[in-house]
Amino acid sequence: MTVLYEDNHLIIVNKASSEIVQGDKTGDKPMSEMVKDYLREKYNKPGNVFCGVTHRLDRPTSGVVIFAKTSKALTRLNKMFKDDEVEKVYWAIVQNRPPKKEDILTHFLIKNERINKSSAFDIEKPNTKKAILHYSLIAQSDNYFLLHVDLETGRHHQIRVQLSRVGCPIKGDLKYGAKRSNRDGSISLHARSVSFIHPVSLQKIEVEAPVPDDALWKALVQSVK
User: Where are the strands (E) in the chain, listed by range?
Assistant: First the structure.
């Protein structure tokens, strides 16, 4: 966990692929507790520290996560996420060349709670939710392609399942069709940046997260035009 931005109301961090945002059945220490420890130490606060979770990233995904340091900021940020007022950009490394250099993908997703996996359909079916994303190809190596992804909706495993649906599974994502896992258990999906109007100061906030310390990520980033 690396702190990217902090003020009186917010703290924005860069999540490593091994970290979890909130506690789960693994019992591993979540980032919400790591942030509390960081705030206790930095501000010498012996008691309870407020840290509100505003959104989540899948465990094997890296990148930007926003936490609220005050209840006022948490309430307002929750509404902003609900109203799609936080712009999030993702970068994804995929195994296959996408069908087009850039495109808008629209699918209908349904989540299987038992196996924690979503399925994508080209037409609407009962209990599905519409999912829309925009992607563009921004760099490539001999074997991999780097996509810039903007989400119009926020569905369960949306980027993973939609890219897989068009024949471009994310590198390392065995759940959605990758040929092999990444050595560190990650998938090559990175929440690259967020931009939004600060819920209290009303200033424009733009934060970018460095990509993982990995040779392929770094090589692809260097070739981004």
Answer: 2-6, 10-15, 52-53, 62-68, 87-94, 102-112, 117-121, 129-140, 145-151, 189-197, 204-208
Other CB atoms within a 10 A radius of the CB of residue 180 amount to: 9
The residues that are catalytic are 58
Phi first, then psi, for residue 42 (nearest 5°) are -65, -40
**Closest-CA residue to 109 (of 176, 158, 63):** 158
| pLDDT tens, the chain, 225 aa long | 899 999 999 999 999 998 998 777 777 899 999 999 999 999 998 888 999 999 989 899 999 999 999 999 999 999 999 898 999 999 999 999 999 999 999 999 999 999 999 999 999 999 999 999 999 999 999 999 999 999 988 899 999 999 999 999 999 999 999 999 999 999 999 999 999 999 999 999 999 999 999 999 999 999 886
The number of angstroms, rounded, from the C-alpha of 38 to the middle of its chain's C-alpha atoms is 22
Q: How many CB atoms neighbour CB 70 within 10 A?
A: 16
Q: What is the pTM of this model?
A: 0.93
Which residues have a Cβ under 8 Å from the Cβ of 116 and sit 6 or more positions away?
none
